[in-house]
């Protein structure tokens, strides 16, 4: 039995998830309810050398709940990879819903595409093979797009998170939600710099700066959630 650490900073909390707890959560509440198409896509992704980048299924479950609570119809996804969060969104929004999804890596998207097709939800997806920033800027050229999106999931290059945020604060409606993934960056945000591998240092600093800025941003209410690699969920309020 793994030890569950009891933090001193806030007593009634289990510090993040031990591996055993995560397994318990996934086995009990997540995998038994995961759509077959998502399971198949997840298994196909596991064979990819970067398969670990796929969205965490427990986060996927929370994301689906948020989409349902919002009655989300129009969404944005930045960072598709093989499409776990994309398929999840497509399965969750109504039949006439639309996702504008951006990723320069079409090859990875094509790994997930057969499962998206099999699930019969491809018509809800507008995949744009591109870096996200120019696409978001293009959307903003049409005033009709301002405040027209219900939800956005950002799961891509951390150096652009604040650039995405500035654009999303115009594209997503007041009351809509923007969720940012990997905000705990493998836990490195709480480690001293010298304990962090070189490969993770740059995005650790970017994550620290982004998390601090978003925590101070009065345009949003936030929930900083220790699920997957850390997600900051923002609700636009102004
Ligand atoms: N949400 C995905 C995981 C995304 S992994 C899932 O559920 O599986 C991160 C992805 O971001 C990679 O596929 C990478 O190609 C993409 N990416 C990196 N830089 C990007 C950029 N500037 N714009 C859009 N996508 C980007
Ligand atoms: Ca991610």
From TrEMBL:
One Pfam entry name: Methyltransf_3
Family: Belongs to the class I-like SAM-binding methyltransferase superfamily. Cation-dependent O-methyltransferase family.
Methyltransferase among keywords: yes
Family matches, as InterPro entries: Cation-dep_OMT, SAM-dependent_MTases_sf, SAM_O-MeTrfase
GO molecular function: O-methyltransferase activity; S-adenosylmethionine-dependent methyltransferase activity
Keywords: Methyltransferase, S-adenosyl-L-methionine, Transferase
Domain of life of the native organism: Eukaryota
Role played: Methylates caffeoyl-CoA to feruloyl-CoA and 5-hydroxyferuloyl-CoA to sinapoyl-CoA. Plays a role in the synthesis of feruloylated polysaccharides. Involved in the reinforcement of the plant cell wall. Also involved in the responding to wounding or pathogen challenge by the increased formation of cell wall-bound ferulic acid polymers.
SUPFAM superfamilies: S-adenosyl-L-methionine-dependent methyltransferases
Entry annotated with the keyword Transferase: yes
GO BP terms: methylation
Protein name: Caffeoyl-CoA O-methyltransferase
């Amino acid at each position: 039995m793994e030890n569950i650490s009891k933090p001193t900073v806030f007593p009634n909390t289990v510090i993040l998830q031990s591996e055993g707890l995560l397994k318990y959560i996934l086995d009990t509440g997540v995998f038994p309810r995961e759509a077959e198409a998502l399971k198949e896509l997840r298994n196909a992704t596991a064979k990819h050398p970067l398969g670990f980048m796929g969205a965490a299924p427990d986060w996927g479950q929370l994301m689906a709940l948020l989409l349902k609570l919002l009655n989300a119809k129009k969404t944005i996804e930045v960072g598709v990879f093989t499409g776990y969060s994309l398929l999840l969104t497509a399965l969750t929004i109504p039949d006439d819903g639309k996702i504008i999804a951006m990723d320069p890596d079409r090859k990875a998207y094509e790994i997930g595409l057969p499962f998206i097709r099999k699930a019969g939800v491809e018509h809800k997806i507008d995949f744009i093979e591109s870096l996200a920033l120019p696409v978001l800027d293009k959307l903003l050229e049409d005033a009709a797009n301002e405040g027209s999106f219900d939800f956005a999931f950002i799961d891509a290059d951390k150096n652009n998170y604040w650039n995405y945020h500035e654009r999303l604060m115009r594209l997503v409606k007041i009351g809509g939600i923007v969720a940012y993934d990997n905000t705990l960056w493998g836990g490195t945000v709480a480690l001293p710099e010298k304990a962090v591998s070189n490969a993770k240092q740059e995005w650790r600093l970017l994550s620290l700066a982004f998390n601090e800025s978003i925590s101070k941003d009065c345009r949003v209410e936030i929930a900083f959630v220790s699920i997957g690699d850390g997600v900051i969920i923002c609700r636009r309020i102004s």
